[in-house]
Specification:
The structure is a single chain. By secondary structure, the protein is α+β, with helices and mostly antiparallel strands. The protein is about 30% helix and about 20% strand. It is built from seven helices and 16 strands. A two-stranded antiparallel ribbon has the order 1-2. A two-stranded antiparallel ribbon has the order 3-4. Strand 7 and strand 8 form a beta hairpin.
């Protein structure tokens, strides 16, 4: 039996998602599915996975195809609190599941920790920060503390000034821009879709909690 054509398959997946998510219409599901799975291969992945795992949007399981991760994120962002974002296989994180293992998706931190190696300089088994001709280096050895050119304290560096001189975190000055919230020219605390914002105007975004499922900061 041949696979359905893209348009009928998209309608089929949209109907399935609407049935699984309370309050979601088929039309709204179709729009979200089109954004999460714009290609036929991705649609087929969604269709096959939801057929065998009807709880995939509510279980938080990590062994899911990438299009379902995107779809769950869009549903959660749209306010469908019934949806659970896929969690990292080894920790509670629900964002930045950038690596796939045979058992499921893992976040970058867990992936790197699982691949820790002895540092070529200090010999400790740590997360690899960089690789050199001497071998892998941990963060401490790859970026050793230096005297700050401004205050003179030996600390981990945050940046370098226009002349290349090292600056610690205390002396580093973030670039100043007009805040998109209040309009005041101040150090940029974060970049948002509306533009740079200062610390006073920055609001921590609300997300779906991986444990309780509530949509909160």
């Amino acid at each position: 039996m041949s696979a359905p054509e893209p348009a009928p398959l998209a309608r089929q997946v949209a109907a399935t998602v609407a049935r699984l998510v309370p309050g979601l219409t088929v039309a709204a599901a179709g729009d979200l599915v089109a954004r999460a799975a714009p290609r036929p291969a991705a649609l087929r992945q969604l269709d096959a996975h939801l057929a065998t795992h009807p709880d995939a949007l509510t279980s938080g399981a990590s062994d899911v195809p990438r299009p379902l991760v995107v779809l769950a994120g869009r549903l959660a962002a749209a306010g469908y609190d019934h949806v659970r974002l896929p969690r990292c296989l080894t920790c509670p994180r629900t964002t930045y599941l950038t690596h796939r293992t045979p058992a499921g998706l893992v976040c970058d931190g867990c992936y790197r920790r699982a691949r820790a190696e002895p540092c070529a300089d200090c010999g400790n088994i740590r997360v690899v920060n960089s690789r050199t001709s001497r071998g892998p280096l941990c963060t401490q050895c790859a970026r050793p503390p230096e005297p700050c050119a401004h205050c003179g304290r030996v600390l981990r560096l945050a940046s370098r000034d226009a002349t290349g001189a090292p600056l610690c975190q205390n002396c580093h000055q973030p670039p100043q821009r007009a805040c998109s919230g209040c309009g005041i020219v101040a150090p940029t605390y974060a970049r948002t879709p509306s533009g740079p914002v200062c610390r006073a105007c920055y609001a921590q975004p609300a997300r779906i909690c991986g444990a309780c499922g509530e949509h909160r900061t």
